[in-house]
């Protein structure tokens, strides 16, 4: 009797979307009483860990990771260490770079691209050499080390001034956390300066007019200077030049001005949006490319039927991941898929020592601010976004697509 061949679902990426894709695919496999010998679920990433990326604006970023090896083992997901460098959608194979310059080809029956996003760094003179960021773990560690060494440098306006470029969510959180970080490092209040630069006419332009006065008040309370309606034309080791010709002396310029989908999405022959995200259907398939799903920051996905699309955020990535993993596994198991939807949307923006602001809905209606919002943000950052415990039953139960991030 001929033995049924094993099918393989490969997930690229161990961020929030990749983690939940693995959990959800394993959950469906378990619900359908299918063994790993019949459906192999493989997660590929450089390290078996989740980087808690939404917290990288905080001090001690080296602590902001969570291991995934035990939970993947508990749910029967195969972990493969390496970096995917090539995708052949015709042959349905990926090429993984391993240690010591080795390469390994892996075939797939379904592929979930959960490769995330990266900071957009335009070709501004000096940015690559002198700009810092809180985009990836190594970036945040480098910035933290730099800040810690500032007191050993000769006192000067440049040493004592931090410039954050980009007044979106990441820039606001980095800027509002900075006064407390600098006080802890220098040990003297009033000797340092934080300046926020935003090229649009207002800070947090995407947040809307309702919450904006709260953010502006927090910036004022924390003594953060703002420059709106201005871009950056050049950086060097001791400062930054703005588009109006103003020169700001600073040895610490943090770039937080926009993100793009990771470059691997460019290897998929399909439509992408201006941020490099692959346009997907409601089941998160990439149309016209057999066997490929995209999720998280790699996907442009409609979240409802009234024109809203998932944002490049942890909140959307977790649920997107759960639907992508479920649907990729469902196709291989011959069971119905589930259309992604995420009608509920909240924001909780950290404002450092000034608290936080919590909004609900796409119109960003403010629900609470200050200490109450800060407590909510703290719970999100320290509990909600971390991986489940490596208990098989609990881990699989956490990945029901209809329940993930159901705020």
Automatic annotation (TrEMBL):
Keywords: FAD, Flavoprotein, NAD, Oxidoreductase. The lineage of its organism: Bacteria, Pseudomonadati, Pseudomonadota, Alphaproteobacteria, Hyphomicrobiales. It comes from the Bacteria. One of its GO terms (molecular function) is NADH dehydrogenase activity. SUPFAM superfamilies: FAD/NAD(P)-binding domain. This is FAD-dependent oxidoreductase. It holds the Pfam family Pyr_redox_2. The keyword Secreted does not apply. Belongs to the NADH dehydrogenase family. Residues 8-319 form the FAD/NAD(P)-binding domain.
């Amino acid at each position: 009797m001929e033995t049924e061949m094993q099918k393989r679902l490969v997930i690229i990426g161990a961020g929030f979307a990749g983690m939940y894709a693995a959990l959800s695919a394993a959950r469906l496999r378990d619900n359908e009483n299918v063994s790993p010998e019949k459906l192999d679920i493989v997660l590929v990433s450089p390290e078996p860990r989740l980087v808690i990326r939404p917290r990288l604006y905080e001090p001690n970023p080296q602590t902001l990771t969570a291991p995934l090896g035990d939970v993947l083992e508990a749910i029967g997901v195969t972990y493969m260490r390496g970096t995917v460098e090539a995708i052949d959608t015709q042959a349905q194979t990926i090429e993984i770079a391993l240690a010591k310059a080795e390469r390994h080809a892996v075939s797939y029956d379904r592929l979930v691209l959960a490769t995330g996003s990266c900071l957009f760094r335009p070709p501004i003179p000096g940015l690559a050499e002198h700009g810092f960021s809180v985009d990836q773990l190594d970036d945040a560690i480098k910035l933290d080390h730099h800040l810690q060494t500032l007191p050993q440098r000769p006192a000067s306006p440049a040493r004592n001034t931090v410039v954050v470029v980009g007044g979106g969510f990441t820039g606001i959180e980095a800027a509002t956390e900075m006064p407390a970080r600098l006080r802890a490092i220098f040990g003297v209040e009033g000797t340092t300066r934080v300046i926020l630069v935003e090229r649009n006419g207002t800070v947090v332009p995407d947040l809307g007019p309702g919450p904006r006065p709260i953010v502006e008040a927090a910036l004022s309370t924390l003594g953060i200077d703002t420059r709106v309606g201005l871009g950056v034309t050049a950086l060097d080791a001791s400062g930054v030049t703005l588009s109006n010709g103003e020169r700001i002396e600073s040895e610490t310029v943090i770039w937080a001005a926009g993100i793009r989908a990771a470059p691997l999405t460019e290897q998929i022959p399909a439509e992408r949006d201006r941020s490099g995200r692959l346009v997907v259907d409601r089941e998160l398939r990439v149309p016209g490319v057999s066997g490929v799903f995209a999720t998280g920051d790699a996907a442009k996905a409609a979240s409802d039927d009234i024109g809203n699309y998932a944002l490049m955020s942890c909140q959307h990535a977790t649920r997107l991941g759960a639907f992508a993993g479920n649907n990729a596994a469902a196709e291989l198991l011959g069971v119905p898929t589930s259309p992604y939807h995420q009608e509920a949307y909240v924001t909780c923006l950290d404002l450092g020592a000034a608290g936080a602001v919590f909004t609900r809905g796409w119109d960003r209606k403010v629900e609470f601010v200050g200490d109450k919002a800060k407590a909510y943000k703290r719970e999100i950052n320290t509990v909600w976004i971390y991986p489940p415990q490596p208990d098989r039953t609990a881990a699989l139960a956490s990945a029901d697509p209809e329940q993930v991030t159901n705020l």
